[in-house]
Amino acid sequence: MSRNDRFLKACRRQPVDAIPVWLMRQAGRYMKEYRDLRARYSFLELCKTPHLAAQVTLQPVEAFEVDAAILFSDILMLIEAMGVEVRFEEKAGPILDAPLRSARAVRSLAPPDPEDDLGYVLEAVRIVNQALGGMVPLIGFSGAPFTLACYLLEGGSSKDFFYTKRMMYQEPEIFHELMGTLSSAVSVFLRAQAAAGAHVLQIFDTWATILSPSDYKEYVFGHMVRVVEETRVANVPLIYFSLGASTLLGLIKELGTDVLSLDWRIDLGEARKSLGPEIAVQGNLDPLALFKPPELLKPMVASLVEVGSQWPGYIFNLGHGLHPLTPVEQVRFLIETVHSCEPCCDPTRGPV
Ligand code: CP3
Hints:
alpha/beta; globular; 16 helices; 7-stranded parallel β-sheet; single chain
């Protein structure tokens, strides 16, 4: 158990002494400590060298009063472990030189063995926990099957996700086969991270935002339910993040995760009302709101905390990752502001 367990308590919708806060991409280029290390190592070297990945994970925990650490790694590591080469280009993000464009290519994906193929991730989890000594909980993570499928089919980021949708619509059996293979890999990987010591698991479904609710239901929902069911046995809280959370709310509520992480396009108070008290919510400040002057940022944060904490089970976060140019002082101010806000629900009340 962690000494600071307000994040774990909020995931379980238990009362907290203050609103827990951590930030997506809290380790990264906006921090000088990260840029200094990055000047010496490539991004992949940082991810694949357990003591370096652990060191980067700890940088924001040492610099700010965040209530959780998130393992420094990337969702593309799982793809590489399945036999597809990935490289990272400055500005362009991840690039796969051989995207999957045929049934044969889909069938050539290898199911990953976490200890053999992703042992460096599991080792980083162990090192981080040892260094944290129970100070705050550690979040492990994976990309969701659909978002991983997008990278595999597109070969990188995309404007229209043409190859993904073409396979979905023209070769649905192969698309479902791909989603099935990825779902198994994701749940095996998540369970391995929990077994290595991750206290909470987050599933990143960034690109679900490109789907209509009916396509999400037809092509993604069943696979995600399977991932959630297969990951449940790890007995740690599960968080689902999607950039499209605001457009898919009714569906993703039914996935069965403990927490939904929302993007900023939806009003947090309305989202909580429509989701009801039986699921915890994380979010949802626009990351670029950190470029507002402090006197304008503060009331925004206070009003998110007020509507977010109308029931137990609220975690403050951004609606997507921190921008690399974010001033460190603003991040510090944000975290202090969240902690200074009074949760609006009665702290003596148990889970609803
Ligand atoms: O949140 C954290 O601090 C943990 C580390 C983390 C990274 N990527 C580090 C990273 C996590 C959880 C991710 C998840 C991830 N990776 C997602 C899902 C969340 C999201 O942002 O939507 C996605 C889609 C990726 C794929 C990816 N990796 C992209 C699109 C990029 C390039 C964009 C960018 O920000 O440069 C990356 C690279 C990446 N992943 C960096 C970091 C710190 C930048 C690497 C560098 O150049 O130093």
